[in-house]
Amino acid sequence: MEISGAFLAVIIEAILSFFLIKKENSKKNLFLILYIVTVTLDLLWEYFIFNYDHKSTLLIDAYPSSFRLLKGPLLFLAGRCLLKYPINWKHYLHFLLFFVVFICNVIVLFIGSESQSFHGFYLWIFKIYPLYWCGYLIAALTVQIRHKNRDNAFQMLFIKFLFFVLASVITYTVCIFGKLADKELLRVIYTFSFFIQFALLIRLNQIDRQLSGTDHKNENIAINEIQETLTVQKKNIKYKTSVLSKDYIDNTNRQLIELLKNKKIYTKEDLNMEDISNMIHVSKNHLSQCISEGLQTTFYDLINKYRIEEFIVQINQNPDLQISELYYQCGFRSKATFYKYFKQETGINPNDYRKKILWEKELEQSI
Asked: Where are the transmembrane segments (predicted)?
């Protein structure tokens, strides 16, 4: 395929990617949307120059677009947003070089070859552009890897995206300057690499949408659990006037603990007090009172305590599995609830706990 066809194909996909991501209207995707817009403008400029010079790539090299200087800062700031770092006015200084070169771009277009020295300076900027581009990609990758969370599917794919872009830039630059392949063929291949970039960006948007839906669901679950806990506590106050014998309380709690230990009923994610009251044939009110007076806790605190203990057993046996996969198996429906109870029981967060296990296993193997 000739290069004009490659330009058109990638431009069309860029526009489609823009609308697919923009449709979600996610603030997290703002810089990724601007990245797509920037790539589109850069390709449109090259397509215009290519056709202006009777389908020759000579003018593309003589008048490179300044838009490409936006790509590095945009991906770097997208990474900051992903890690929920604040963005202030100082961060927008990253775009300063673009505006300077954009002005130079306009001047070069109007003066043409009348000022060889100025045009030479302009082209020199783009000779070091690959270093500038790689520098931003490496900086973005370094920050992401340093704060990598393997349970964050969006971040893991974003890291792969950055690696792919960096590998593409390095390969293209080495092949061009080393004259390892035909320049026009390399240009077409590099242009088509944006197909993969846009496909990854669309996938990132899909993951972001899924995570947003899950977070919203988890918030609702957490609110419901809090409301149910408050209801139980109110009932407990009421039951202080209701006297149950010590033997009754002990017997009820013994049956409950047996169910939890032997049957592991806590792994049922929608387990509620009515389910257990039916299993041991006591009323919900009496069950709540027995847990409160005999075990000095609430129903949900007790169930989640057993879930955490089960999670600890599972993570010690399978530290390489994803945390989210394990806590769902243990009965947790909400990430927020799981993290809250895990920190309450162990004093550290699950990620640090798993790192500790992996470190201990590596230490054992090295001895």
From this structure: 6-21, 30-50, 62-83, 95-112, 124-145, 157-179, 185-202
